[in-house]
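does this look right to u?? nicotinamide-adenine-dinucleotide version
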Amino acid sequence: MAIPGEAGDVSVPPAYVKIAVIGVGAVGATIAYALMISGLASEILLIDVNEARAEGEAMDLMHGLPFVRPVTVRSGKYEDCAGAQIVVIAAGVAQKPGETRLELVKKNVAIFRQMVPQITAAAPGAVLLVVSNPVDILTYATNKISGFPARQVLGSGTVLDTARLRTLIGQHLRIDSRSVHANVVGEHGDSEVVVWSRASIAGMPLADFCRQRGSPCEPGFQAEITQQVSRAAYEIINRKGATYYAIGLGVRQIVEAILRDQDTVFTVSTLLHGQLGIDDVCLSLPCVVDRGGVDAVLEPSLDDGELAALKRSAALLYDTAREAGL
Ligand code: NAD
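got this back:
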């Protein structure tokens, strides 16, 4: 006889994991692709105002079925979100060359006012993961429009910027980026803040690591990397028109942390309630992510310059939300 909960036990049905992706342009389709490869989902539902596009993406992905773990990828309508554990929102107008993320705000808030009520009516228990830009403002808009508890609504925030930072530090210091602990906080955009004062390699300050390893820590390398991180989206958009692979991989990690109740720390965007003196703004701080979304917002020790920059970032986002009528 099988032991309850172990292999061979058929008394507990396997969990049916359904994830909806709204907006299947470059970003949404790449997220769906990354989720399909991950094997995390039983069903991936694709929704787009351009129904033919959603159908086409679903067909293309489904033809790869023999190469992955069983999953159904299909296109549908908002009511089909019923039963989804997570709804990823990547719909909207993409950033144009030279355009700041905040300039996109009004166009995309209007789309969210029409879209979010349809999602919440169908899937009142789902965690909503916002990816569309400007992601902090749209995470705030989703909070307000949905009326969901704040923990249930999060944005990808500076997860991508933090990944870029760890990649560049790792390349510069010749160390696996997974061994780099460093965060970008604040807005996912021009006012973001790199927390250099706490950057470490496995707990060692960068200067100590460089001394021991003989790695290059020349003056100015931090400013150079900060510049590359904040310019990354513009540089990629100038060359290929959009960014989608790295964010696709980042969203897959966040989704996994939610589905598996992992308590993983990500710099996701979340509604702050007084943390570090910031209130009623969505922005990124390190957050513990579990099955309900954001379980806790961590308050890292920042130096005076970083804290002042974070507060400027928060003030900018607060004002922008007001300008957008939120
Ligand atoms: P895209 O133009 O390729 O795709 C957007 C899709 O949204 C299109 O398929 C469009 O038909 C759909 N759409 C528009 N209005 C809709 C509506 N009302 N309902 C449903 N679908 C709708 O753009 P993209 O390159 O895929 O980028 C999507 C979003 O992701 C943009 O806002 C972009 O700035 C953002 N983005 C965020 C990050 C991040 O780190 N958070 C990274 C890259 C891109």
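Residues 2 and 9 are 5 Å apart (CA to CA). idk if thats expected tbh
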